[in-house]
Amino acid sequence: MRGRRPKGLASPFRPLVKEGVMRIRDPDRVFRFVCWGLAVGLVALVVGIGLTLLAGSLPSLKTFGLKFLWGRVWDPVNEEFGALPFVVGTLVTSVLALLITIPFALSSGIFLAEYAPPKIAGPLSSLVELLAGIPSVIYGLWALFYLVPLVRWFEMKVGAPPFGLGLPTASLVLAIMILPYAASITREVLRMVPHELKEAAYGLGATKWEVIRRVCLPYGLSGIVAGFLLSLGRALGETMAVTMVIGNRSEMPQSPWDLANTMASVIANEFTEASRDLHLSALIEIGLLLFLITLIVNTVARIIIVRLEVK
Amino acid sequence: MKGLFWRKLKDRLAFFLILILALLPALPLIHILYGILKQGLASLSWEFFVHLSRPPGEEGGGVGNAILGTVMLAVLASLMAVPVGVLCGVYLSEYARGKFGEVVRISADVLQGVPSIVLGIVAYLWVVKPMGHFSALSGAVALAIMMLPVIVRSTEEILKMIPETLREASLALGVNYWRTVLKVLIPTGLVGISTGILLSLARIMGETAPLLFTAFGNPFWNLNPLQPVEALPLTVFKYAISPYEEWIRQAWGASVVLTLMVLGLNLFSRFLAWRLGGHGR
User: Over pLDDT 70: what percentage of chain B?
Assistant: First the structure.
């Protein structure tokens, strides 16, 4: 018996498969097997999510094929479904939000990492991170009652249709929501810049701004880019705040002031009301698209981070 | 000398620009807190915490069932996510060797990035559709999936920080490895692991999107996990987009309660982490 016992931690399956269930009495192996099984379960969960979405969207995939991606019409009554208006809505609001947020997040990150005295920087960063934890539905509530009137006032000033709701409001609220996250990543990245490098630059007579501009930012560039990509990933999947202020119009947006819908908001609005199978399946396919887009953005960010850690 | 003057001027200008750009975003964020407190605190009363909502047009009423529902969803989700997440973390820290460990880590990262509304769809297809109706259980499944990656990664990090000598001391006394894990490693890392669990709870308590078509909402008291249940974020959403003055007032009230719950959990976990590390980050 003893000779047949496998050595090392190779495969947790071996005790059960090779030596029969008797070995189950060895509690160490049972424990390892349970842990291993749950870890396999975690992997299976991720694969399962992808497959479930794929299976759920099969009817829509079969009916529309690739045309789903650039179909401009979303008409649940006549069962014609194209996702382009929502893809455009999601991309426009998220990218706009990121562009609005970048200068502010960069400045906040630089301020917290370089200028603020450590005694203030610590609590201030904690405060920023706490704000990142406020539920998105509350950002939506605030935007609905404070941001919408502001945007409407601005739209009247510039002569745009004064909806108040729509693409600009959604982009603004998204920008506010991802800012704490982007700022705290920027700060973390800048704090990783080696002191020797900075001191060397100071020793050469550089001013503080020159050190930031020529040493810190170039050194942390890839990390900061990865952080902004992760923020973009968050904005892409953000549902509630956007649903509350985007106006929920399922047509192709014609101007940047238009009412629109994002992929997440159309799912939130129509999923419980979808009585026909094809409608539900089309919504699931939008979910699958959203899953894939966020997966790609997050993966690119992770690859940059892994490279950074190797360096 | 002129060069130095310009460089110093540029340095000053850059500082002021950064200061202004860094402080500007504080305005909306502080205004959100101000808005919640100003609009919300007024509608808080004893009745608000213990009563059901009233039909539109009637004054008063509360969100008692939503508070209970949120707590129930959090408890159910924790029951599912905590044991699985902690043991996955144990696997990653104690047993994972080579490629498979990496695959598990990547899976956790992918799971972390999945939009919450997509998890709502998945919970709908997995639980609501087979059961035939909305339920608290399906909402808890979606929330548990959201909790998992945070718990897995934080447990792994904490267990890896425990010195190898502690494991060896326990093993040298003739204690089994599984007992070493359960009686030595997990108790040693308990504060850190709890911090991760609390952070993940704070993350899911304010989630609305995955509950829209799983827990669904319920205007009555409910403690049965197989029936639909109300939750605070759902109440905020429903009342906020309603046309009734009184309901909108209650949406602000509910958002105060929700914000305090989430921020409270966040602060408490930060306090634990601070106790653990001896200083705040």
Answer: 98
CB pairs under 8 A between A and B: 247
CATH number, domain of B222, equals: 1.10.3720.10
**Burial class for A159, CB neighbours closer than 10 Å (0-12, 13-18, 19+):** exposed
Domain, as residue range, for B99? 65-231
Residue B110: predicted pLDDT? 94
Short-list B272, B103, B139, CA closest to B218 = B139
Q: Is pLDDT above 70 for A11?
A: no
B1, B4, B29, B104: best to mutate for the A interface, most A CBs within 10 A: B29
Domain assignment present for B216: yes
The radius of gyration of chain A's CA atoms, rounded to the nearest angstrom, is: 25
Looking at the complex, report in whole angstroms how far the Cα of residue A160 sits from the nearest Cα belonging to chain B.
Answer: 24
Q: Total structural domains in chain B?
A: 1
Cα B192 from Cα B276, distance rounded (Å): 7
Query: CB distance A135–B181 less than 8 Å?
Result: no
What six digits make up the tokens of A73? 């019409």
Partner residue facing A138 (CB), from B15, B36, B100: B36
Identify the DSSP state of B242.
S
Which residue in the set B118, B233, B255 is minimally distant from A287, CB to CB?
Answer: B118
Per-residue pLDDT tens over the stretch B180-192: 999 999 999 999 9
Q: Is the pLDDT of residue B279 over 60?
A: no
**Do residues B110 and B180 touch, judged by C-beta distance below 8 A?**
no
Question: What is the C-alpha separation between B162 and B90, in angstroms, rounded?
Answer: 12
List, for residues A90-104, the tens digit of each pLDDT value: 999 999 999 999 999
Asked if the Cβ–Cβ distance from A137 to B177 is below 8 Å, we say: no
Query: Which residues, in sequence order, are bridge partners of residue B216?
Result: B229
Three-state DSSP class for residue A11: coil
The answer to the question of residue B58 being in a domain is: no
CB contact under 8 A, A141 and B19: no
For residues A144 and A168, give the distance between their C-alpha atoms in angstroms, rounded to a whole number: 13
Of residues B8, B91, B96, nearest to A207 (C-beta):
B8
Lowest mean pLDDT among A48-52, A127-131, A192-196, A286-290: A127-131
Exposure string of B246-274, with b = 16+ CB inside 10 Å and e = fewer, is bbbbbbbbbbbbbbebbbebbebbbebbe
Q: Which residues contact A215 (CB under 8 A, 6 or more apart)?
A: A193, A197, A198, A201, A206
Residue in B103, B120, B86 with CA at minimum distance from that of residue B234: B120
- Tell me the ipTM for this assembly: 0.91
| CA pair distance B22, A116, nearest whole angstrom | 11
pTM: 0.91
Please tell me the distance in Å from A138's CA to the nearest CA on chain B: 6
For chain B, the distance separating the N- and C-terminal CA atoms, rounded to the nearest angstrom, is 43
Residue B264 counted as domain residue: no
**Mutation target vs B (from A25, A26, A32, A42; most B CBs, 10 A cutoff):** A42
Of B28, B206, B207, the CB nearest to A176: B28
Which pLDDT does position A12 carry in this prediction? 52
pLDDT of residue A118: 85
Residue B206 has pLDDT above 60, yes or no: yes
